[in-house]
Each structure stands twice: as C-alpha cells, then as structure tokens.
Amino acid sequence: MKPTNEQAIELFKVCQDLTQMYLPIYLVRLDERTTRIYILAGQSFEVEILPNGRVKYL
User: Fold this and answer.
1) Alpha carbons 40 and 48: distance in angstroms, whole number
2) Which of 10, 22, 27, 35 has its CA 20 to 30 A from that of 50?
3) Low-confidence ranges of the chain (pLDDT < 70)
4) What are the residue boundaries of the structural domains of the chain, listed by start?
C-alpha cells in the first residue's frame, strides 16, 4: 500500500519541521487498516496524517 500524494507531501513537511526542532523521529508507519500515516517523534510527540493530507497532532 502506498500513501496518497497529499499524505506524501504533508509527511515531508512534518518531518522537516520535526527535524528543525531537533526532535528524533522514531517511527513512521502507514496503517493499512485506516490508511493513515502515524509518526512518533521525541519523547511523546505524535502526528497522524489522514489520506486527504490533513495533519492531526495528538
């Protein structure tokens, strides 16, 4: 399964923002059940990218 174009663009932007804050990115996962991208960074920073490209900070 591949991410949508919107997800891929937002993934790049979010990863760039996280690394500019010097947060280590521990996990990037495309959940095949929900088709959402999940990112775990820093101690407890969580981000979810929906198939339409919307970014949710958890």
Assistant:
1) 9
2) 22
3) none
4) 5-57
